[in-house]
Design a protein that fits this description.
The complex is a heterodimer of chains A (293) and B (324). By secondary structure, chain A is α/β, with parallel strands linked by helices. Chain A contains nine helices and seven strands. Chain A has a single domain, classed as Rossmann fold (3-Layer(aba) Sandwich), CATH 3.40.50.970. Chain A is globular. The two termini of chain A are 35 Å apart. Chain B has two domains: 167 residues, 3-Layer(aba) Sandwich (Rossmann fold); 135 residues, Rossmann fold, CATH 3.40.50. Chain B is built from twelve helices and 14 strands. Classes of the chains: A alpha/beta (293), B alpha/beta (324). At the A-B interface, helix 4 and helix 5 of A face helix 3 and helix 5 of B.
Chain lengths: 293, 324
């Protein structure tokens, strides 16, 4: 698998900032899930580095411009990994982080899938195979109006068996939507087990390429590589962009990594403590690598 | 459909397409999204006149509705035109989540609805759309009865702030209203003179309003007075009009080109029961069985969705009422 090399142009300070954000987001995600007694741990931890790079380095989107049309857009197609999105949006000041204490509580806006009741979210998702079609519509509207905003969406790899994903893909290529960026969180696990055992969908690169995408591979848990790749959009003029982001489900917590049970398993008190300790160690390792901030 | 006595107009679809052309001339945000359905939706002239304002999706209704939601979220005024049978079944989850739940004001245009496709059979009939959409929050439901109602609802739909489903048949429609009739989404239109008392209230929607009106004329010759309502909007539901029509009548009959379960009749019956207005009531529609085969007109006649059928239902109901 050819991966994009680490870019020389990304400053060490920037990489360090992104890496420390990833640790912060993992802390927020785990706290949310632990406090709520519900959530999708594995998938949130696998896609959070992508969201980190999108919101902190790539996308022109903020609480200040969110009500305008002329900005970048994000659709969270793998809606069940909502905790990762909540963590990033809170950090980007779309809403006070204390609101996340209400997650999954009675009458809370912060439910187990994204909704427009939460400032910063532009489409309700949760049923799989919907986000890409909506993104195609948004990207097409931008093209029709001569705007340069881009539409980003993250899909799960288990989601790819939904037929509507491929309907949407055909239309993205037909309309030459090079302002559409589809990122597959390729963690190779879904609720039942390995994606390839549940229903084989490889070869994905060839499938997406045949549908008309410009396909790129990246280590989806490596913020430097993600940033370098996504700085170079569109990959090919006139083609929709498809990123196969190779990730690890449960990334960042040793005992959760690559275990399908953590699709929506909840940490016990002891596991939560161990997870927090591992994140502390990750922070210390960052300091060792880059020095104190 | 029997339409003697009433001047025949055009198909509602032709009027829909013509109205859209008039509106789009001054509004480039109006988009028509099709699923290889521009011919059956009569929007080919629109596509030729405004090639930048038609979005062809191919035969892929789920994607069609999702794309429409995305276009609407970017401020486009989107008319999504596809046969009602596919649009409201295959793409029901997209209508529920991407449009209604996400509050995207897409105009879902279900064409050749009900049994318009006649002998093409059940795959092409939509006798479930009212039921399915009434159970989904935040989407209004309108079925115009004639050309006038069609122009009015399309003009209103362009600037309508909520998701809306508009259902059209296939055939040329009789003209029921004069051009000065007041039309408002959510407000029923009474077709018969206002009276303090009626014998029967005939409440109909879409293609069944004309046969209900013709039935009322036949019944009047027998001295039976009807209150005929074109209840073009199933949602918002005009409770006041339905309550008044029922309270002033001895019996109530609803008529629809839809399953008798979950459509207009169910809605009226449930409302009247809960409002404490108890009247003998009959729901005329397509019963819970494999639909008889044939043309739309033959299917209507088979199930009594005709002036004669509705009249007979009214006479039987009134006789029963008198015996009690």
């Amino acid at each position: 698998m050819p991966l994009t090399p680490t870019p020389p142009q990304l400053s060490l300070e920037k990489i360090r900032l992104l890496e420390s954000k990833s640790i912060l987001y993992r802390r927020i995600i785990l706290k949310m899930i632990f406090m709520a007694g519900a959530g999708h741990t594995g998938g949130s931890l696998s896609c959070v580095d992508i969201l980190n790079v999108l919101y902190n380095h790539i996308m022109n989107i903020s609480p200040q411009n969110f009500l305008e049309v002329n900005r970048d857009h994000y659709i969270h197609s793998k809606g069940h990994s909502v905790e990762a999105l909540y963590a990033v949006l809170a950090d980007k000041d779309f809403f006070p982080i204390e609101l996340l204490d209400s997650i999954e509580k009675y009458a809370s806006d912060f439910i187990g899938h994204p909704t427009r009741s939460v400032f910063g979210i532009e489409q309700n998702t949760g049923a799989l195979g919907h986000g890409l079609s909506v993104s195609v519509g948004m990207a097409l509207a931008a093209k029709k109006d001569g705007r340069h905003d881009r539409v980003f969406t993250i899909m799960g790899d288990g989601e790819l068996t939904e037929g509507s994903v491929w309907e949407a893909s055909a239309s993205a290529a037909h309309y030459h939507l090079d302002n559409l960026v589809t990122i597959i969180d390729r963690n190779t696990l879904q609720i039942t087990g390995r994606t390839e055992n549940v229903l084989a969908m490889e070869p994905l690169e060839e499938k997406f390429a045949a549908f008309g995408y410009a396909v790129r591979h990246v280590d989806g848990n490596n913020v430097a590589q993600l940033a370098a790749l996504l700085e170079n959009l569109p990959f090919e003029a006139g083609k929709p962009n498809l990123v196969l982001a190779h990730t690890v489900k449960g990334k960042g917590i040793s005992f959760m990594e690559d275990q399908f049970q953590w699709h929506h398993r909840l940490p016990t008190d002891a596991e939560y403590s161990v997870a927090l300790r591992e994140l502390e160690q990750a922070e210390k390792a960052l300091e060792k690598t880059y020095g104190h901030q | 459909m029997v339409t003697n006595n009433l001047p025949i107009g055009k198909t509602n679809l032709d009027i829909f397409a013509q109205t859209l052309i008039e509106l789009a001339a001054n509004d480039h945000d109006i988009l028509v999204v099709t699923s290889d359905s521009r011919g059956s939706g009569r929007v080919t002239p629109f596509a030729e006149k405004f090639p930048e304002q038609i979005v062809e999706i191919g035969i892929a209704e789920q994607n069609m509705v999702g794309v429409s939601a995305g276009l609407a979220s970017a401020g486009k005024k989107v008319f999504t035109v596809s046969p009602a049978c596919f649009l409201t079944a295959r793409a029901l989850e997209q209508i529920k989540n991407d449009v209604a739940y996400s509050d995207q004001p897409v105009k879902i245009i279900g064409i050749s609805a009900g049994v318009s496709y006649g002998a093409l059979g059940t795959t092409h009939h939509s006798l479930h759309d009212f039921a399915a959409l009434q159970a989904i929050n935040n989407i209004d439901i309108v079925a115009p009865a004639d050309n006038f109602e069609t122009v009015q609802v399309i003009q209103a739909a362009v600037r309508y702030p909520r998701p809306i489903y508009i259902r059209f048949g296939k055939k040329a429609m009789p003209n029921l209203h004069s051009s000065d009739t007041h039309f408002e989404i959510g407000k029923a239109i009474q077709l018969t003179p206002e009276r303090e008392k009626y014998d029967v209230a005939l409440i109909a929607i879409g293609e069944t309003v004309a046969p209900a009106f013709l039935a009322s004329q036949a019944l009047l010759e027998k001295g039976i007075n009807c209150c005929v309502l074109s209840l073009h909007s199933l949602r918002p539901f005009d409770e006041a009009a339905v309550q008044q029509a029922a309270e002033r009548s001895k019996a109530v009959i609803t008529v629809e080109e839809h399953s008798v379960n979950g459509g207009l009749g169910s809605r009226v019956a449930s409302f009247l029961m809960q409002a404490g207005v108890f009247r003998p009531l009959r729901i005329v529609g397509i019963p819970d069985e494999h639909t008889v085969t044939g043309s739309q007109g033959e299917i209507f006649n088979h199930y009594g969705i005709s002036p004669q059928g509705i009249s007979q239902t009214a006479l039987r109901l009134l006789k029963k009422e008198a015996e009690q």
